[in-house]
Amino acid sequence: MSQELQFHPIANDWPLIEGFEFADLCDSIQVNGLRVPIVIYDGMILDGRNRYRACIETGAATNFEDFHGTEEEAEALVDDLNRHRRHLTTGLLASVAARKATRKQGGDQKSEDIKLQICSSIPTRAETAKQMGVSERTVNHAAAVIKADVPEITKAMEAGTLAVSLAAAVVALPQEQQEEVQALASEPEKMREVARDLVHNHRAQGTGENEWYTPEEYVDTVREFLGGIDLDPASSEVAQKVVQAGRFFTIEDNGLEQDWAGKVWLNPPYAQPAISHFITKAVDEFNAGNVDEAVVLTHNYTDTAWFHNAATNCSAICFTRGRIGFVSPEGKKAAPTQGQAFFYFGERVEQFRDAFSKTGFVVVAA
Q1: What's the fold here for domain 209-364?
Q2: How buried is residue 268: exposed, middle or buried, by Cβ count under 10 Å (0-12/13-18/19+)?
Q3: Which of 127, 227, 253, 318 could be cross-linked to 249 through a Cys-Cys bond (beta carbons 3.0 to 4.6 Å apart)?
Q4: What pTM was estimated for this model as a whole?
Q5: Measured between alpha carbons, how far is 339 from 301 in angstroms, rounded to an integer?
Q6: For residue range 15-25, what is the model confidence (pLDDT) as tens digits?
């Protein structure tokens, strides 16, 4: 053909085959020719992207046939054929579900090397997760990996070398640590081992304060004041036994990359630079009108830039009377060397003062 054909967006929900699998397909087509026609829909390749690539690679003759049906029928055909042809890992299914959600929200996937713009629609993610037989949380993790645009990690996730949650945690690591994992793409077992070690060490780095939870009595005060917590964007499964938020994001979800909305409770990771990033995110989401109200708990490091950022954008601050004994995952109480501060973002300053007067003294921000 004088001009190469484009791949249909529906077909691009599924990744192309590579490596020895593609080499084997090229060898087969070179010896036997193209036995199964390439299917065309709306002038683009719907099924047979890999066969088409192999024909181009080997110079073999191509053979086409048109698909006549609805878009829903076209999607069902592609999914059915790929389910039968591929080794289906959880990572692959979650990746496909994430791409489907993007496409159904209007994401342009006509170019196979596009950087996906991950949609924030919970219903769409839920729908595609169910369609692929995986959990919505797993799809959220896969979406974060795809958005990070690190091909070696995405391929490892889809191949099953890295669990989806582990892959999501890897792309949240500093660049040099991500590259350390990427470099082991040809050694799957070692790649998985190094990824686990780096993620574990990253979570435990610094003072360890990132893994301390707020005692129940303080969370109860926040929940009662807000009338319920819609979102906890820096949390864990363990913390939710106390927080009981409508939605929450774990370190694998990377709350900095997610949309925030409603009434927010935030006890951010206290190590730098994470705390600065979470404070900036909270301020930006509130000022943009996405967050109705927010209560943010930090140490009272009044000399830091992030503390001043929060203080100059919030409505009021409660400086605690005494120090909060944060709780470790094992149930041990911390003994911090400084007091804490609750920042309030919202219009109900007097109600905040009334609710938190038992916790400390409240000052209204200028």
Answers
A1: Rossmann fold (3.40.50)
A2: buried
A3: 253
A4: 0.55
A5: 9
A6: 999 888 999 99
